[in-house]
Design goal:
- It is a single chain.
- With 337 residues, this protein is α/β, with parallel strands linked by helices.
- It folds into 2 domains: 208 residues, no CATH class; 98 residues, no CATH class.
- Strands 1, 2, 3, 4, 5, 6, 7, 8, 9, 10 and 11 form an 11-stranded mixed β-sheet that branches.
Length: 337
Amino acid sequence: MSDNILKFAQYTHTSVRDLAWLLQSEPYFQTRIADFATFSFELNTDAALDYLQFLDQQDTLFFDRHRISRGQYRRLGLYFEALLQFLFTEGWQNGVCPYRLLENNVQIPNKHGKTQGEIDLLLQHSNGTLVHVEAAVKYYLGFANDASWQNWIGPNARDRLDIKMDRLLHHQLPLLRNPASTPFVTRWQNQYQQPHITSQLLLKGMLFQQPGQDSLPEQVQGQIHLGQWCHFSQLNELKRDIVACWPCQKLQWLSGPTIEEANALSLQELIQQLMQAQAPSRNNLDRIANANSGPGSAPYRMMLPLLCYTKDRTEQIEQLMIVPDHWPDSSTPSRKI
């Protein structure tokens, strides 16, 4: 785990670390899932490393101009999409991968004019073939030592792996087969002189297990990145093991925060801050509102669920997802950071 973090931490700019994570992290599924292939970047490794080093020498304005700064987004999914679009335009031009972006976020209307669905990415390989990619970044916690998709639940308990996969496999990925998509498919086939468009899945993120849990969701490949999760009331049980903590804002969930001793919290400090956050004073609420006034602004206080990087007494760095004690049974939705 420490090696994984270190290979992203070598870069100065957070956007470059996140691009490195995007390129090097393992997807949920290795080759196929149901009727669909999984997407592979087909990286030119040397070109990718050279380009990441080049990017890391750029100033902040470069990342702002290309719309790939964390601070320009409130939602992780939109930031993830922006990184992909950058990779398939600027990265493609620099030989990082053989795929170039043709269109993105294409809304497909039905005969009544309402949206039937949306095509995330339409790409063209250097060999000319067209690929429709549905892309997502998701985080799930194993609620039981069970491989069933329904037992892998998001930090927001309304999100489950079985629900997400059902929508991907039966709505999003087959969208080009829907009659509503025929005008788009015909236009792309004629425009790019390609008779076929394949649909592929790119699903990235992370899974979290409870201590002692060894199961993975069905068909998920064993190299997927793993962390641990616990309820808030269980944090005290970890005091003997955890010597430093780095809590993450949501936009830091890809490659993580800056791991430095100077910005570390002890586990006790983390617990105290989380306890204070559950019952804020009126003054605290006013300061929180001011601190959150702009896109990407750092929140004044931490909220649950919370992803936290931790270091143990052996210097091993792990990722811990902390969820409210009511998770996942309460009807109260989990709050976002």
